């Protein structure tokens, strides 16, 4: 499981990819992929990669969005589990084993 707490305070997105043909010392290289957050602050650089088609560059640029999606899905799952727990509780109040069996089958806990 990903510990999203360790990413608190990260540079917010969107991150943009910029490709350069040289580094700061003037040496020519294949390319540098830089990820900036809009204020010109370089988040990281990837030497020797680059090109818009590079999947690593796209994955790094998508990091803020991926983290946000993990958090959104976890919250959605938390709400769903809370609703299932509440439904399980109310079904159990009837003290009807057959109703509980059907309920568990309906939510996928039994076959």
Account of the protein in words:
The chain has 111 residues and is of the alpha+beta class. It has two domains: 13-61, no CATH class; 63-111, no CATH class. 44% of the residues lie in helices and 20% in strands. The protein is built from three helices and three strands, in the order E-E-E-H-H-H. Strands 1-2-3 form a three-stranded antiparallel beta sheet. Strand 1 and strand 2 form a beta hairpin. The model has no long low-confidence stretch (mean pLDDT 77).
Features:
111 residues; 20% strand; single chain; three-stranded antiparallel β-sheet; alpha+beta
The amount of helix comes to 40-55%
Low-confidence region ranges: none
Helix-strand sequence? EEEHHH
What is the domain tally? Answer: 2
Whole-Å distance between the termini?
27 Å
Strand content: 15-25%
**Largest beta sheet: strand ordering:** 1-2-3
Shape: rod-shaped
User: Structural class, judged by helices and strands?
Assistant: alpha+beta
């Amino acid at each position: 499981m990903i510990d999203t707490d360790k990413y608190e305070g990260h540079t917010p997105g969107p991150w943009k990819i910029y490709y350069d043909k040289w580094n700061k010392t003037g040496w020519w290289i294949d390319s540098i992929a830089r990820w900036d957050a809009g204020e010109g602050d370089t988040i990281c650089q990837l030497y020797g990669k680059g090109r818009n088609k590079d999947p690593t560059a796209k994955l790094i640029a998508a990091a803020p969005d991926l983290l946000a999606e993990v958090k959104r899905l976890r919250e959605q799952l938390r709400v769903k589990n809370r609703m299932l727990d509440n439904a399980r509780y109310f079904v159990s109040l009837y003290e009807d084993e057959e109703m509980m069996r059907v309920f568990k089958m309906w939510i996928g806990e039994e076959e």
